[in-house]
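Translate structure to sequence.
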């Protein structure tokens, strides 16, 4: 069976699909590629699990003000 898209295209579509940016046609081509390419199929599954874990982690970032304060303090310490 001839693979309709390359591994690179399948990886890109996989990323788009996770962020709901891939069209139905792109997802279909990716799934056809996964039927033929075990490496991409496994990588796609791992990528999906990673995204799921990150989403469940409920990560928080520092507010911009605190980041700026840390940068200023770091620069002050480096200039001593």
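Result:
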């Amino acid at each position: 069976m001839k693979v309709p898209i390359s591994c690179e295209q399948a990886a890109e579509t996989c990323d788009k699909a996770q962020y709901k940016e891939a069209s139905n046609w792109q997802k279909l081509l990716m799934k056809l590629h996964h039927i033929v390419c075990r490496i991409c199929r496994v990588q796609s599954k791992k990528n999906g699990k990673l995204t799921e874990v990150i989403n469940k982690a409920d990560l928080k970032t520092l507010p911009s003000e605190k980041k700026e304060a840390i940068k200023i303090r770091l620069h002050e310490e480096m200039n001593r």
